[in-house]
């Protein structure tokens, strides 16, 4: 690009839930760092979550900005400032938030018409944007926060319904038409797949809009998922670009954190644990007590908020982690969404993971969403003994980490 006049103008439309919004904002920043003129469409409360980072990028000379749309809180009966799903506390608020998002469709489409971007990149949960882009004659790219494998696995289950052929929810079945032999149980599938509820209809609209899109941007990289990258493009019929990994937020409930802490401690292996400073769990006192204990035993280190992640992961003393980009084996603890698919990829395809033992898909822990049901008492919490066994196995009692990485 020879001048700012030649810059591509790309609009980004993130979905207001942390696990989708944070990766898309990071994607938008990445585009801006490579010379693209970027506009992120958002609302006032959502902008507060990442505006400082955008301002820093802009002050560094990158062409990136937010375009703030007024959020129709009063129209739908939501309290001021409740503009993303991590903040809602009831089913009623969830419905109102979805209603508010639907009311934003017209002003967003009007913005597209007035500012004439060269391309729009939107979250999968805005299927209507494919028609908006078509009217303007510009490409719409869908952004997937999850990798290719989970898309392919979900497509296999949708097309072939292998879970309907087993006798019980705990019986295993094979996922047809995938490059690898993958086994799952019905309990590991999202609830909307098992029950065919209204959310399944939304997923159908999302899949159709995906096929009509110019292409997809996927939070992955070619070296990790080359076979599934090719399989994805063959089953969707669209182009795909691997741009990742970009960040992802995955929060645990207090009960899960406590079991994780004591499981790490009981494993007798030294560990580093990064904990966000604002976590409510710290107020309850257990984390401070645990931190005192591990200091006395000289077995672990708790780091508050930010840590030099790459520096830590690349150190030769590190034997395991919860991510693949540093070439380390990991323990898998799926919770919701596509995370059981991710576990199958890690444990059955690239074979660098040890399952911690979760057997059933559950609704999202943090916040309440349209598809969440009130089953707090039935939530599966992995016990510290299972975590201890997984850590010991990962760190050498079973398969040596170097063997797993190969």
UniProtKB/TrEMBL annotation:
It comes from the Eukaryota. Residues 7-246 form the Glycosyltransferase N-terminal domain. Pfam families: Glyco_transf_N (PF26168). Keywords: Glycosyltransferase, Transferase. InterPro entries: Glyco_transf_N (IPR058980), UDP_glucos_trans (IPR002213). This is Soyasapogenol b glucuronide galactosyltransferase. PANTHER family: GLYCOSYLTRANSFERASE (PTHR48047), SOLANIDINE UDP-GLUCOSE GLUCOSYLTRANSFERASE 1 (PTHR48047:SF150). Belongs to the UDP-glycosyltransferase family. CDD domains: GT1_Gtf-like (cd03784). GO terms for molecular function: UDP-glucosyltransferase activity. The keyword Glycosyltransferase applies.
């Amino acid at each position: 690009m020879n001048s700012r006049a030649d810059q591509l103008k790309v609009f980004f439309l993130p979905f207001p839930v942390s696990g989708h919004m944070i990766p898309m904002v990071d994607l938008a920043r990445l585009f801006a760092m490579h010379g693209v003129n970027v506009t992120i469409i958002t609302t006032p409360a959502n902008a507060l979550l990442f505006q400082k980072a955008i301002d820093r990028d802009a002050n560094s000379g990158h062409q990136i900005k937010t375009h703030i749309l007024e959020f129709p809180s009063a129209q739908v009966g939501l309290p001021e400032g409740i503009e993303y799903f991590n903040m809602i506390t009831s089913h009623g608020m969830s419905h109102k938030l979805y209603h508010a998002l639907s009311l934003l469709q017209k002003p967003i489409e009007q913005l597209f018409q007035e500012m004439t971007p060269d391309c729009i990149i939107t979250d999968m949960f805005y299927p209507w944007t494919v028609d908006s882009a078509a009217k303007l004659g510009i490409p719409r790219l869908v952004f997937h926060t999850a990798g290719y494998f989970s898309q392919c696995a979900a497509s296999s289950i949708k097309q072939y319904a292998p879970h309907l052929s087993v006798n019980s929810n705990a019986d295993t079945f094979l996922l047809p038409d995938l490059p690898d032999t993958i086994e799952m149980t019905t309990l590991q599938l999202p609830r909307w797949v098992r029950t065919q509820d209204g959310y399944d209809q939304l997923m159908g609209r999302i899949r159709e809009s995906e096929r009509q899109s110019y292409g997809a941007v996927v939070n992955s990289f070619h070296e990790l998922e080359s076979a599934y990258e090719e399989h994805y493009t063959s089953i969707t019929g669209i182009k795909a670009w691997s741009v990742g990994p970009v960040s992802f937020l995955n929060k645990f409930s207090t009960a899960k954190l406590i079991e994780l802490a004591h499981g790490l401690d009981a494993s007798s292996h030294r560990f580093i644990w990064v904990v966000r400073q604002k976590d409510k769990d710290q107020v309850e006192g257990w984390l401070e007590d645990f931190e005192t204990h591990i200091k006395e035993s000289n077995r672990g280190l708790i780091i508050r908020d930010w840590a030099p992640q790459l520096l830590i992961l690349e150190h030769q003393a590190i034997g395991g982690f919860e991510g693949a980009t540093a070439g380390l084996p990991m323990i898998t603890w799926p919770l919701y969404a596509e995370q059981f698919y991710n576990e199958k990829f890690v444990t059955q395809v690239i074979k660098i993971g040890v399952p911690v033992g979760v057997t059933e898909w559950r609704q999202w822990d943090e916040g309440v969403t349209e598809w969440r049901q009130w089953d707090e008492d039935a939530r599966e919490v992995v016990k510290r003994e299972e975590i201890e066994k997984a850590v010991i196995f990962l760190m050498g009692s079973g398969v040596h980490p170097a063997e797993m990485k190969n």
